Amino acid sequence: MGRRRAVVIGGGVGGLAAAVGLRRRGWDVVVHERSAALPDVGTGLGIWPDALRALDRLGLGDAARRVGRRQPDGTLRKPDGTVIGALDAGSVHLLTRPALLGVLAGALPDGVIRFGATADLAGCADGCDVVVGADGIHSGVRGALFDAEVRRSGAVGWRGTVDVPVAAGGETWGRGVKFGLTPQADGRTNWYAMTGPDDDLDVFADWHDPIPRVLAAAGDVLRHDLLHLAPLPSYVQGRVALLGDAAHAMTPDLGQGACQAIIDGVVLAECLAGDVDAGLRAYDAQRRRATRLLARRSLQLNRLARVRRGTAVRDAVLRVALALRPRSPSWSADLERDELAG
Question: Where in the numbering of this chain does the FAD-binding domain appear (predicted)?
């Protein structure tokens, strides 16, 4: 029996995790990535314990830990600085997207990733055993398989990185808007914000320190609609598998996008250690329910943050919830424990 061949379309976190895992199981793998090279700048990612354990199964967990840092505890506040509750970071590990991609790409031989290469399903299906669609929320691979709706959440996201060190991160929630800070390992700070479509960053001008200082230091600012994907009937069709945002793009409120893409890639590779068709069915069975639950919870949290009336009641509920669950910094520790373990 000859070596099996996989084509991965998309060289992001999930696509590279799948490529590393498949090669460890004897597959020939080619990754088509439309960018010219790995990025050298990017915001911070919080990698939860399940995702770190998935990287451990690739033999890359220690490398990821070395290039990042443990995420420090944070605080949930009101715009005037009043504390709503503490956010215990637990075992979340923080590293930048370029650092994570560098760890994954460094585990692949030269030539596996073909940069500057665009590819579609029709051009890749012949002559390979599996095609992996890891090409993001606007996935062309998914579009060839399913008529899936990319939906607007009704919110706009903003993000950037500044040379303003902060001792600890956290989030501040106002009326329909929020602002978050995450210290990076290099002393800089990743910031992000959510507003309504008609708002701009001036809504944060009189919020508590250091938010105005961070925005004053902001250079390049990314602004984008916060989108999410309608649930798919399957992550597999024929010998094509979808993963990451191509399969279950969710709003960023749980901070789980990169984590779930890593887990997708590792589980897919593990399922494909044996029979291909049975492995693809097993992958869909393991990952679709868990990620659908997370996507739904993330959208619920997004809607809660966008409340403009009754914020005093909302904040009181959050205060009680944080007191009862002090180790849920991204609101998903219980989901991770109870619903992703299997």
Answer: 6-72, 234-297
